[in-house]
Amino acid sequence: MKILIATSGVPFMRGDAEILAGNLLEALSEAGHEGELAVIPFKDYPPGRIPDQILACRLLDLTETCGVRIDRLIGLKFPAYLIPHPSKVIWLLHQHRAAYELWDHPAGGLIECPDGSVIRDAIRQADRELILEAKAVYGLSQSVSGRLRRYSGIASEPLYHPPANAPLFYKSAAADYFFFPGPVSSVNRQWLAIQALAQCRERVRIRFAGEPGSLAQQAKSANKLKFSDRVEWLGMLSEDQKRDLYANCLGVIFPPVDEDYGYATLEAMLSSKPVITSSDSGGPLEFVLDRQTGLVAHSTPESLAEAMDTLWAERGCAAVMGEAGRAHYRDLHISWANVVEKLLC
Amino acid sequence: MLKINWFSPLLPARSGVAHYAMQVLPVLARSHDVVLWTDQDQVSPEVHEIARVARYDPAAPPWREINNGAISFYHLGNQRDFHAGIWQVGVQHPGIVVLHDLCLHDFFFMLSVRHGKDRAAYCSAMERWYGQEGRQSAEAYCAGGVSAESMAQKFPLTREAVRNALGVVTHSIRALEELNETPACPVAALDFPYAAAAESRYRVWRAVRDGVPHPPYRLMVFGYLNRNRRLGPLLEALAGMPEREQFRLEMCGQLWDESHIRDRIERLGLSSAVSLHGFLSGDQVEQKLSTAHLAINLRYPSMGEASLSQLQFWDYGLPTLVTHTGWYVSLPEDATAFVRPEYEIADIQAHLRAFLADPGAFRAMGERGRNSLKNHGPERYVDAMTRFAAEALRLSPRVSALALAGRVGSDLREWLPVAASPYLLERASKEICTILEGRRRG
Question: Looking at the domain assignment, is residue B88 inside a domain?
């Protein structure tokens, strides 16, 4: 089959969505299909121009190329998933989050604009009207599917996929640190973990992937709290370094705000490490079984500190949870072959 | 329950809209979460008792909090001091615009030219809605030599006031239609709200009136007595009637030029028939209205505004003479006596003679006016207003659709030959409708 993956991206920015699109392309190729990426440049400001970008996508004709039919279009990201095609399947990575679950969250931003609520309503209207054009709609996770049902009234099936280079993750003996994968952002809540450190009874250490960035000032506050020796910022990591950090940690801390999916959870499970997450973290909650493969805390420093102290003090228990996580991952049968089969059926 | 942002003048502001708000807000706040936004220095304690009062700076409004409301109501009128900040927020954050004046030319001129020193903004607005003629007239007006009244009547700029609105509330659809300034968004015509006094109280007022010896009959002019209240023609009409001794005219309210009016009264020989009372307290209003026999409530030119005084007159069962213009045109014909602007003096005299010939017929007119107040109850008004807001919210993506269509049209005009454009225009139009108006399922 000739398959086009339609997604959108911010020029010069590369993140998980771009990696996922590349991996999907590879998986399609491995399954014997001819795939191609169509990346629509996207700029979310000023918000008043977002409808223009929806219209631009709607006016594209991707039914054929050089007289040859494109058999399937797989839409991933807003607004590219709104491109019309007679044989379109949407695998929804996420909707425009600032118009939905991040509307009144500090990370959203749309709410700060004068015409924010009108643009929000326009985006929601477009999604409600046009997503249903697709032959089938899948969500990246239960979180994404749940939001689509809640906000847009559209049912979709969650479709899990493995993180990049899944077979390369490994397990090693637990050293004296928790690993907090990046990137550093208000949504990922590294600051919550730093605040939790101040509440810990144990001498817990956390190694953070990424640069502190806007957390620099807060990190200085951490110094004042006299536990700077228990916080380490690792900067940008190579894939090898990242896997080593997973393999050697005691456990992984990952308490984001309503995460779509959360590779960090799966990567920890592949590394046989328990995960500490939060009850409002979204995607990770689909994989972390509380007190079996990790701990689900509340999004308060006190609750997170208690979870960190528990794993720090009970190393044996942490190891058992890590192994259970690995087994749970295996039981979920997460594979690219399954993803390709669903998206092409 | 809706979370409502309410932008209007609030007491103690000397604005009719602030008094209107006191009729509506207690009812609205009973069933909705209302935030009263203000840029006034002071807000009366009784307003604070109704709902939360929040301050805003028109130059930097707190968009996060405003966006957290489900809907915003913007009350616009011609008084720049009270409405400038409201318009500044409303034009950026679409909501429901409640028009308290329909001709808003004076507002935009004062806002842009007199106070903003931005003649270009005023001329652009005039060109936006009236083309080259509008721009040229704007420039001529700025240079002087054109009257404000004629500019307001010819170029009301009503659409400028509502250009980004989700919906418009007017208190007279007929007056709005006559302006030929129909907005692109949904419009609701609601009866101006007024909480009528209880029937028992009304019976007391009626008994007081019946006890007043007559003739002479008491004529009443009441409210903010601006230039357009037609006091000159009224005095002339009275002076020209041999029967004038059968009337006593009482002018109650702040006069735009008291010495001029006093001089006019004297020159017309009406000193014994006319008295001036200035601004009245609440008790004085009750005393005057319950002892009057006929109210005279003329306005010309009208900015299309509704008259709270008119509803007060009816509350007391007073028959009234009104100008056949603006909001008044939509009043029930059997409850008012119309004065045509072009036959003002003759019509006033004819009505006064008809009154003398059959006071009972006018008394019945006043009774019908009082009965018509049942259509003006604040509960009914608030119910209609919030239902309209919900509908306007449902259609809110239209604002984005119109803006997008405008941008697409403007861009295509730059580079696409007309002959090549039909397909793309049709396609783009269809897509805009589908994306933002949901026609596919409709």
Answer: yes
CATH homologous superfamily, domain A166-331? Glycogen Phosphorylase B; (3.40.50.2000)
B126 part of a folded domain: no
B67 CB near a chain A CB, below 8 Å? Answer: yes
- Domain check: are B86 and B204 in the same one? no
User: Residue B74 and residue A266: Cα distance in Å, rounded?
Assistant: 51
Cβ separation B94–A104 shorter than 8 A: no
> Does the predicted interface ipTM exceed a cut of 0.95?
no
All residues of chain B having their beta carbon less than 8 Å from the beta carbon of residue A118 are: 94, 166, 396-397, 399-400
Give residue B275's domain range.
199-376
- Pair (B94, B205) in one structural domain: no
A2-159 is a CATH 3.40.50.2000 domain: yes
In A21-40, the residues whose Cβ lies within 8 Å of chain B are none
**A104/B435 Cβ within 8 A:** no
Between B399 and B44, the more confident residue is B44
> Longest Cα pair distance anywhere in chain A, in angstroms?
68
- Which of A52, A117, A129 is nearest residue B438 as measured by Cβ atoms? A129
Torsion (CA) A228, A233, A234, A236 in degrees, nearest 10:
-170
- Domain count across chain B: 3
Banded model confidence at residue B440, pLDDT cuts 50, 70, 90: low
Residue B439: predicted pLDDT: 58
Residue A225 has pLDDT above 90, yes or no: no
**Which residues pair with residue B213 across a beta bridge?**
none
State pTM to two decimals. Answer: 0.83
With a CB cutoff of 8 Å and minimum separation 6, the contacts of A221 are none
CB contact under 8 A, B397 and A118: yes
* pLDDT at residue A219, as a whole number: 61
- Rounded distance between C-alpha atoms, residue B244 and residue B233, angstroms: 14
